[in-house]
Amino acid sequence: MAVQNHYRTLEVHPKATQADIRSAYRRLAFRYHPDKNPGDDFSEQQFKAIQAAYAIIGDPDKRKQYDRDLWLGGHQQIKDNYKRPTAMTVLKSSIRLRQYVAAVNPFTIDHHALQYHLLQVLADDNLELIRREHNDKLSSQFFEEIMNASGSLNYNLLEPVIRQMGILAGEDEQLRERLSRFVRRRRLENRSRRLQPWLVLLLTLLLCILIYMAA
Fold this sequence. Notes:
Blueprint: H1 6-9, H2 18-32, H3 41-57, H4 60-70, H5 87-103, H6 111-121, H7 124-133, H8 136-149, H9 159-169, H10 173-214
């Protein structure tokens, strides 16, 4: 089932404040209220859609969960895929998530939503299904999909994902080594990212000194 875009319905930006949302709701509800538009089916449907949208994004807690679902871009919500799951459906969920992450702009990723969905796929019950298959190829592919999907995740949100991956790896030396390499790589990337502003500042200072000396 596609996720309805309630922000579009209320004509507000996804980053709008609760006050902005409340103001937009009142404006649109007044415009399309049935008492103002008697016998107008379009206005009646719009009014219902506006009320439904405000019931979700007008509530901060409901909005937080909605934003996580909306971030998947209208794809079927992952939680719908957990009805009577099998190892194969769990693998397919990881593939879908990896494909979606690969397709979105890395600068617009909702990292908290990504972490949420990674942990949904890595839920203990799902890991048990994977282990019960005793299928090294399936386990390896699932592991790879999760690593690829979490490659863009903010480093500060990575720890619970790594913990679940460690549970999946268990005593498998190959999976544990791959996980170790992944963690090392992400740690180095994080250090480099933290040092970048200082390197830019240093280069700027050096450039200023060179220009001053050449003057």
